[in-house]
Structure formats: structure tokens, C-alpha cells
Fold this protein.
Amino acid sequence: MPLPQFDSAIILRYDVAGPRYTSYPTAPQFDSGFGEPELRAAAHASNEDPIPRPLSLYVHVPFCLSPCFYCGCTRIITRDRGKAVIYLEHLYREIELTAPLFDRDRPVTQLHFGGGTPNFLDAQQMSELLDSLSRHFTFSRDAEREFGIELDPRHCDGDYVRMLAANGFNRISVGIQDFDPEVQRAVNRVQSVEQTRTVLQAARDAGMRSVSVDLIYGLPLQTVEKFARTLREVIELRPDRVACYAYAHLPERFKGQSQIDAADLPDAATRLTLLGLTVRMLTDAGYRYVGMDHFALPADDLVRAQDAGTLQRNFQGYSTHGNCDLIGLGMSSISHIGASFSQNARDLISYYAKLDSGRLPVARGLALSDDDAIRADAIQRLMCHGMLDIADFEARHHLDFGVYFAQSLERLRALEQDGLVALDPARITIAPRGRFLLRVVAMCFDAYLAQPAPSEVRYSRAL
Amino acid sequence: MNQLLHPGRTTAHNPLADDGDELRFCSTCAFGSVCLPAGVDKTALRELHMLVEHVGPYHAGDHIFSVGERFAAIYAVRAGMVKTRQIDDEGREQVLGFHLPGEMIGLNAIHPEKYPCAAVAVDTAYVCRFSFPALATLATKIPGIQQQLFRLLSADIGKAAQLAGDYSADERLAAFLLDIAARYAARGFAPAEYRLAMPRGDIANYLRLAAETVSRVLRRFQDHGLIRVDGRDVTLNDQAALRQLARNIPHA
């Protein structure tokens, strides 16, 4: 893949709203016509492939002790740890109902805990949950398995990290966002470098395979100088992976964000400089730009998978274990089983109610059509490998690319004029200056964007 | 069927016998070869065609005929896949075979005049129905039809013997993959790349293996570069090695 070329003028011109394509079709297309019978049928069919895909489990822990104002995740703010007890009772019930849908010879090669704040669960609760999962599913014993968890270092210590390692976790992902105290106060997340270092160091000492950190640019009171300091501190911590997300200010959609004073937000030019700075400092420090918001050290699995052409895009961003059926457990979790997407109820009351009546908590979803699957593959190839080989794609999907994607190609030709992609008869390639605008390229293949969007869909901007 | 395809799709996932017309059978049809070389006159040919009825679509799980049903017709698969099965005294299913486009089903019902097995669509399937009384009458007029019926009957009897021996899981699966390939090849489809539309449970049942064993062996074949499996699509990369594995099984 060519080195990315940071072209401010082009990036600014294409700063349009668009999906992030952690799935295609994207979540706003899910609907309530897809429910428990459809999910059961998808699970049943997934067992019946000649070699059924391995499993990936996602477990959502929705609770947070305090609200970070920028956050757009589905979460519940509470200091009442007792809430976790009731939640876990229901999660266990969901595990008992869900696990038997999948044949036991399908190994779990990937496990991910996200939130909210997964370390809202105490050590004993976490051990018991892991124990339940390992009894109901068949955990892979392969060293290549990827068991990861998102951690909030403000509520986590070395003992907790060692407990996680003892329970089989080999990856942690730690939120930082920004180390600057003023920015931290403005977003209600005060976290020292030292707290962060303790958690990362404990993970390494415990033999974890990879540690990752999250940053956000575009937060209130951020300046280029202050963010450069944060980046220097991050580089010194030397995480294997760095994700740097763009803050999208949508207070009408994410209520917590109304705590942020819009006047404190950096302007478009500053945001662009912050992104450029991030790219420059991280690549100068030896990180590779993987795509979208993600950077990784050359020895990391993510970079090796990209070089080997096995990288996949999924709900966690990029993944080395993309060829799994994904089972989402917990409130609001998304599953991707066979040619289907589905999502659990997005509030505790409905999530609990369905489980209390002995039903799976799925609330909405989508069965992919052939066309969906074909477009998803095109988007996947461009976002992960930066290239789409037309002959290979035609053979895989039994189609004439030029005819099937006539409209997409027309849109791509406009992007080619701006040097974002290179089109030739054999392949579509992401050009160096298009690497930061992958979602704009992906949008060319999105059949749903041409249609009126379902109500309330608001995408964040590409930049 | 082509109108079901999105513009730009070149073929469906499952091979489809090209549609015949009044004087021409689908190129894959078991009866397609009967008439032309034998120089059948056009009136007879037209008569044969008139007793063929296109039926379908059947969806996965739909019955084309059931056990014990009075024998009235034999069928040729036009598109999709059909399995035949029996239910034993304990109520367990026994898969007898999988039938690909161009292949006949129902031949084993000619004698008792009842279907001894059920025929069930594995995926979306279309079939041709040959009314048997009419076909039998016509066979007395056209010798080629009689001969073809006998040929089909004896081939059908030979098929079941293949798995009766005491063969290992590797041998059974290698033979199974090659058998499907040979049958596709015989009908002019690409032999090295095909779709196993049936659930692995049916493959396991047919080969008298556990489902996990089927997957374990296929994964090992894949790890050794013999095959590549992508969802339900299978590519045979090394047919020579598969033949070597299956060498003890007759006709493999």
C-alpha cells in the first residue's frame, strides 16, 4: 500500500457526512422485521457450512461511573455497582439461550469486551463471567486467538490487569483521548499519564500480546501545541496500536455532548492541522497508518495482517479475525452471523424484559441480499487492502464489474480527477492522498445513500 | 431464470441447465442424448417433450415427493440441488443421495409403484417431471428411450454400493468431493469449483460420519492445500492427491 499523503485542501473539500463502514449495510438500515426467528435461522445455517466459521464474541458492559462528555456510545452512568449484579444475571441468561444455537466444534478465536466501561465489573464478577463464557462456548487454545478488553485506567490497577491476563485476555485497549488537563476537565475525564502508564505496563508485564490506546482530536480547548504534547507522551508509552478518532459534535443526538460549549471547539482548519500533526508524529515515530483512524507498529498483528492481505473491517474497527461469525452479547450489542446483522435491545428495560420472558433480546437486524454482500466485499477490500482486483472480484461474485458497478465507477471517476483513487481496467487502487478519505471512496459503493435515509440518521463528518 | 439476476451478474451461484424448447432438451438432461444420435423422428421427439413438465421453484425443505406416495413420475433436476432420504424405524433420517442439475430422481420407485424415499429440495430447486405412464408408452415406440431408462436404472443401483465398505473419514470425503466434481464435469459444468449447498449435517449423514468429523477432515484437506472452502463454495486444488486418498473406494 502506498504511503498516505496528507493533502489538506482535498481533505477539507471532501469533509462530508458519511458512515464509517464498520458494517455494510450500516446500522441505520437494520429494522425490527428481523427478530428472534430470523436470528435463530441465521445461527442454524451458520453451523451447516462444510467448515463452519469460528466464533467471535462481543460482550457489552454498558455502565460508566461518570460521563465523558464527548461520548456517543450506548452507556448508562451510575455509581451503583449493584446495577452490575442485575445486568450480569440477564447476561448469563442470554449466554445460556445463545450458546446452544452454535455447534460446539466452533472455536471462539476472538473475544472482545467493550462498553461503557468493562472494568465497571469487579475482579470476581469478571472471572465468573469469563468462566461462564468458557463453559458455554469452546474457547480456542490457539496462541493466535485475540481476547481483548477496553479499560478505563482511572478505575483499574495492576492487580485487575493481572487478573485479566490470568483469565486469558491478551490485548487491552485504553482510552486516553487527550492528556492535557484543561481539555480533560472540559470533557469530564481527568486521567494522568501515570495512571495510564501503570495499566499499560501491567499488561506488558503480564505478557499481553498487544496494547492499544484511543485518542480523539477536535475536543474542546484542544490546540496544536497541547495535542503535540499529548502525542509525544503517547509515543513515549509506545502502545502497539493507536486509534485517533475525530470528535463529532452532535448534541441533539448524544445528550451528554450538550455539556460541551461549542465555542470551545477547534475550528475546521485546526481540526485538520490536528489530524495532520497526528499522522506526521505517529509515522515519524515508526507507526504505520493502517486506515481510517488506526495506526500500528510494524510488528503488530494488524500491520502483518494488512501486509498478508487478511485484514478485515468490523465493529471494532480493523481486525485480524474478521472471518468469524460475531455474536454480540449484552444490551445494544451487534451480531454478524452468516449473511445477517442484528442488534440487541438498546435500553436496559427492553433488554431485561425480553430475557425475563425467555426470549433472545434481539430488537432489529437485517438479512443481507446478494447485492449487499457483493457491495460489502468491495468496500471491505478497498478499506483494508487499498486495492480491488477486478478479475478476482468478478470470479468471486460471478459478475461483470463494469456493468454491475456502472454507477459506482461513475462516482469513482470524479474522485479520480481529484487524485483519490486510480482506476484502470485491472484494478481500483486507493491513491496516497485518498488514504484519509476511505469512507468517501466506500460511499461510491453504498446503494443506500442514493435512497432517502431512514429518519434520524445523522452521520458524523468524514474528517 | 436469467431475469432473476441483477444486471451485470454473469451466472447464478448454482448452475442451471439451459432451458430446452420443443425440439431441444436442456443440454444437461439425462434424456438429452437419447434422441439425436438415434435419429428419432420429429413427431416422436415432440411427443417426448410434451410429457415433460417444468415444476418449481421448490424452496429448501420442500418435498418433490414423499415416502410411500404413489409412483407417477420420474424427475430430472433442472437447477439447484435435491436430496433423497428415508426415515428409519427409530425416526432417524438417512440421506441417500444428492442430485445435481441433469440428474434423475424417482427411478427406484418404478417397481413397487411407490416412492421408497422422499425427495427434498436442498436449496431453491427446479425440476422436470416426466409422467411415467406416458414415458413407458413412448418407450415402446422409441427404442432409445428404453435403453436410456435401463442405463439410468443400473447407474442408480451402482451408486449406493460406494459407501457400504469400511472406509476412513478421509477416504469417504475425498471420494465424495471427487464424485460431485465428476458429476458436474459430466454435465459440462466446471468440475473443480462448485457449491456444496447441502448442510454439513446432510453430508455427514450421507457419509455416515459425525458433522464435526466432516469439518475436521475438510479443514485438514484445506490446510494441506488439497481444497479451498469459502462458505459453501469448494475448490478442488489437487484432484490427484484426492484420488490418491480415495483409491480404495471403487469408482472414486
In short: The interface with chain A takes residues 6-13, 196, 199-201, 203, 211-212, 214-216, 218-219, 222, 229, 231-232, 234 of chain B (CB under 8 Å).
